[in-house]
Every structure is written in structure tokens, then in C-alpha cells.
Amino acid sequence: MITFLPYGRRVEARRGEKILEAALEAGIRIRSLCGGRGLCGRCRVIVRGGGENLSPPSETEKRTLSKDELSEGFRLACQTEIASLGDIVVEIPFESQPYKQRLLTGGLERPVQLKPAVRRVVVKVRKPTLKNVESDVDLLLEALEREVGNRPRVGYEALKRVPSAIREGEWTVSVVLWMDREIISIEPGRPRKGLYGLAVDVGTTKLAAFLVDLESGETVATASDMNPQISYGEDVISRISYTLEGEGHLEKLRRAVTEGINRLLREACEAAGVEPSMVYDMTVVGNTAMHHIFLGIPPRYVSLSPYPPVVRSPVDVKAKELGVELNVGAYVHALPVIAGFVGADAVADILATGIHEEEATSLLIDIGTNTEIVLGCRDELTACSCASGPAFEGAHITHGMRAVEGAIERIWIDPETLEPVYKTIGDVEPRGICGSAIIDAAAEMLKAGIIGADGTFKRDLEAPNIRREGGTVEFVVAPKEETSTGKDIVITQRDLREIQLAKAAIYTGTSILMRRMGIKPRDIEKAFIAGAFGNYVDPENAQIIGMYPEIPLERVRFVGNTAGSGARMALLSTDVRRLAAEVVRRVRYLELGADPDFQSEFLKATHLPHMEPERFPNVMRILKKVRKADLRKRA
Ligand code: FES
Predict the structure, then answer these.
(1) Does 31 have pLDDT greater than 90?
(2) Which of 67, 175, 202, 397 is geometrically suited to a Cys-Cys bond with 286, CB 3.0 to 4.6 A?
(3) Which one has a higher pLDDT value, 489 or 60?
(4) Does ligand 1 lie within 6 Å of residue 45's CB atom?
């Protein structure tokens, strides 16, 4: 038996099983950025009892954990095997527990005319007579034809309910039609229930769900959580790799996300006082790997050149087949995808921002672990994506964390004293730094002259918050006396490097796309920056570090979770679904890896703001002004 603290949850241990696997079975999540490959060191647990029943520390553990940690009982959950069947007690320390992320659920959304895929029709059915004995279904379809002008097929789940519904309703029934082509539900008499739909955004890191009243078009509840697949790897590639590593792995991932969606469905329904059986339709968006995995489609070839998706067109599948607990006859509509690395979420972004209808040249950047970029206007749209990594979501940063309570979300540095001032989410004691403050930190350190354009700490600069120890340099943002973890929160040289790599990927993707299309930063009249991370970013600081080309700031708009908005629009209107399929046909995909300039562009973009400062005249003016003022003050 293995007991997990602090939850007190217990599961029967199996010999040869890893602690990480046993935790998953117990429904407990442990951070595992590398998907259990022993690379990230984030799955640290502390063995509190029964250590003799575990395998001895592996070479990987000896490399990753210090001697002190090993003697305190620290182990890597993905490396430690259950060697014999005795009682084991394992504590999952705070830093190894996944964070509940503060999520953006709302985003820019364009109004649509209500025309959902499902509608309810009430019909009066003729009774059969002895002279003319017709089947229940024939009589039902005859009545429906009078009402809607065609004879839909009768879905199997509805078919089983036909005889009782007709008679219980005394020959009046309410049927729910899907696309006017199929009866998906039948209830006796006049409707007593509402008609709802669920729009879901399946992100690599997060899930967001919107419960929508399909008769009024109103969103009645939202719910969000981490994508439970995160325990199997934090990025798209490690998830795909996981599906290839063993039989049944794809199904494990598929089930994990389905269960996550079911939890959000229940949470949203409870909040709105709606039964899940009243939810008759669902739309879903996600990047291509998330889309394929949710549908149970092997994503293997998405990760292999030339990265083809298995399917681009929209997919309609019964919710029951996927295990999503909507009304038993309901369908799930997965929006179409553009390419292997530009998925249905990017399609939803396009629909919500409306850049496919813009006369003006527009840019859309959806920042996440994978960043999608779309450029153009109604005549021409080109999309690409880049692996920007999880740095802006707090991973790979020493004290990085997601945007949850206790995360430092803004940082300012006094250019005279070099002392930082910060603000945390929830105004509580800090326990880490989230993406927006990670950008602030780099920009403010650059403005204050703590680091140079190459991102390294200035050698000769001394200040109370700059600490040099054992050849490493770090900037203390919050001393341990102020933090809830009792540890200093710092930005290290390695963190700055991670930030430089992430922002360079976004800049390079955007600039190559612009160059290929002959578009200069000043030609861009509208720039939409989307994503849960985007809303908390200071646009000027993002530009100071060179995250995207120098577009006039007044043209930059942070638009929130537009992937969720697009999914909701498609839920409200079948016209939007048709439009999505058309947009996919119009968007050209550009594979960045194949661009001969990618490497050199990327290298130049790692500088702050860029190795060619003439690309950022305004930023250079800001930096000069700050430094002049600083020199005056110091004088
Ligand atoms: S080291 Fe164990 S999950 Fe990464």
C-alpha cells in the first residue's frame, strides 16, 4: 500500500511500478515537465516511510538530487520503482504539486446570429388505428415533416425512447434535432428542460469550458482547470512521444482530457443549475496534437516531417463515443485544423478576431507553450507556429510559476537604487514569478542597466539585490523574509537565457512571416495578442525585450482567450462552422523550420531587444531616456 501525503490518499502498490504511475492511479498529479524521462527534476517527492520497499537511487537521481536531498529522502517520482510490497509513505512537496492556474476564460468575441446546430421542435403525433397500423417512427416522422419540411433519421438513443415518449406525452413530443438531419433526443410532451451547449478550449496546459444557453445565446457559466494530461509531459512533443511509448498510452491521454472536460462540464452545470443531460451540443478547439489526442486519432505523424495532420476538416462524433457526459444523443463538433502545428485553436482565434475579414493588414499572435502566428487580411492569410517553450508560463525558470495566487505578476525596478517593487496576484506573500513579471523583470533589468543587451549581468555593478555566489549571478526580487516559501525569489542568469530563447522564437516566427509576405512593422494596422498569458503583459515591456517587431503600441491589442471565444461562436452558429471550414482552406501554412534564415534570425533575436537595434528605434529611444535620467539622478 502506498500513501500519498498531504492528501492521505492510498493505492495498492504494484511491484515494478514507478511512484509517478502509482500517483496517477490514485488520481494525484505530480509535476512532470519532461513526461517522466528523468530530465526535468520537477517530480521530486519525499519518502517518509517504507524506503526499503523502493529501488535504490538511480544514476539519474544521483545526478539530479544533491547528497543532502537524497539523505533527506528526496527521490524522483518518475525514476523510483516499487521493489517490494510493503507500506510506503510518500509526500508530494508543494513545489511538485501542479498549480491551479488563474485562467482567462473571456476573450474578444464577435457577435453572431443565433443559429445553433441543435433545435427543439414540438410535434403532435397521429395515433395509429386498427385499420391502418403504422410504426411509431413513421408517425413521428410524418409529424416532423409537416413541421420542419424533411424526415430526419432517428438516432439510436432517441429510437429507444420513442414508444414511451409518445405515450407518456399523450401523442405530443419534443424532439431535439441535430443539423435538422438527426433526432438526437425525444422527450414526452412540451419541453420542460432548457437547451444548452458546451464550448471547450483544450490547451496544452489548460482547459476552459463555456456553458451556453442555446436559446438565448448567453454564456451561463464558465469553468477552467489544468489539462490533466500535463502529468504525461508539459509540451506537445512530449505528449506525442508518450503516445508512442506504449500500447494504450494514447487512450490514457485521451481519457485524461475527457475526464477533465467532464469535470468542467459538471462544475459549469452545477453553477448554472443545469443537468448535464440538458447539454445537447459541444464544440472543441485545440492545437492539432490536442485535437487528435482528444479524438483518439494517433498524432504520430504530426511530429514527423512534413508534419501532416491526419484530418483537416471538421469532425462530428457522438459525445458518448468519446466518453463526454453530455446528453446521451449529443454530438461533439471538432473545428477544422490548418496544419500539423497550427490547429483548430488558431482557426478559432481567426474567427474571434475577424482578421479574415479585415481590409487592414493584421497580425495575430496566440502565445502559449506553442505560439501560433497569423498574418494578413481578408485577401491573404498566412500562418506559422513556433515552439516558444513554457518559459512565459513559468516553467524552466528558477522560481517560475503559473499565474495563480501568490505569483508575482508585475515587477518594477527603481533605476536609481536598483531595488525592485512587485505586485502579487491576490496581494498575498509571493511564492514565485509568472509570465508577465518574467517579461517585466527582463525589461526592467535592461532599463536599469543591470543587464546588457546580450542579457548578461553587468560585471562591475554592485547593488544589495545583486548577488554573486560561486560564479553565478542572480537578482533578488523578493527576499526570503517576504515570501511564503521562506526562500528568496530570484532571477538568475540562466532564467534570463530562457526568456531570451522564448522571446526570440516568437520574434523570429513573426519577423520571418512578415518578411515572406513583404510586410513591415509600420504596415501592420492591427496586432492582436491572444492567450491566457497575454492579458497580463505590459505591451511596452514586451516590446522592450523584443518579443515582437516594433509595431506602434496603440495598434497592439491584448485580446484574451480568443480560442475559447471562437469555440463559443461555432457553438452558437452553424454559419460560423461553415466559415471555419472556409477559413482553413484560405490560410496558407508556412513551415518555419524550412526557412534558411531561421537560425541566424533566431540568434540575432536573442539580444534585448535585438542584435540590430535599428529594428527597434522607439525602444532604443526609451532606453536612452531612462539611462540619461538615471545618470542625472546619480550625479
Ligand atoms: S524528472 Fe521526473 S518527470 Fe521529469
Answers:
(1) no
(2) 202
(3) 489
(4) no
